[in-house]
Amino acid sequence: MGSADWMPRNLDRRVEIMFPVEDEILKSQVKHILDVQLSDTLKAYEMTDDGSYVRIKPSRGKKPVGAQDTFCKEAKKNNEPEIDFFKKRTFVPILANEVLDE
C-alpha cells in the first residue's frame, strides 16, 4: 500500500512510504474498503475522456451506495458491545456545596 500519486515530484522530492500487506485478513479488509469506495454512487465522480468530471448517477432501480454511511454502520455494528457499555455509564457531577461539606 502507499500513495496513489506516484508522480516524479513526489518520488524525487518527498518521502513516499510503500509497504506490502501480507496478512490475509488485512488484505480482505483492504479489498472490502476499496470495493465500498469504488461502489459509492452518492458523492462519486467519473473522469471523462476529455479530462472533465461528471457526477455518477445511481443506476435506475438500484439503491444508492454511500461509502461513508456504509463504514459508519459497519463500525457501529462491529463495536456494539463497547457502545452498549458506554451508553450505560452516566456522568454525575459533584456540586460545589457537596465538596465543601466533606
Biggest sheet, spatial arrangement of strands: 1-2
Beta-strand content? 5-15%
**What is the helix/strand order?**
HHEEHHH
Give the % helix.
40-55%
* End-to-end distance: 58 Å
Structural class: mainly alpha
Mean pLDDT rating: 84
Runs in which pLDDT lies below 50 for 5 or more consecutive residues are: none
Radius of gyration: 23 Å
Tell me, briefly, the overall form.
extended
What are the SSEs and their pairings?
Layout: H1 8-13, H2 24-39, E1 45-47, E2 53-55, H3 67-78, H4 80-88, H5 96-101
Antiparallel strand pairs: 1-2
Note down, in words, how this protein is organized.
The chain is mainly α. The chain has one domain (22-101). It has 5 helices and 2 strands, in the order H-H-E-E-H-H-H. It has helices spanning 8-13, 24-39, 67-78, 80-88, 96-101; strands spanning 45-47, 53-55. A two-stranded antiparallel sheet has the order 1-2. Strand 1 and strand 2 (53-55) form a beta hairpin. It is extended. The mean pLDDT is 84.
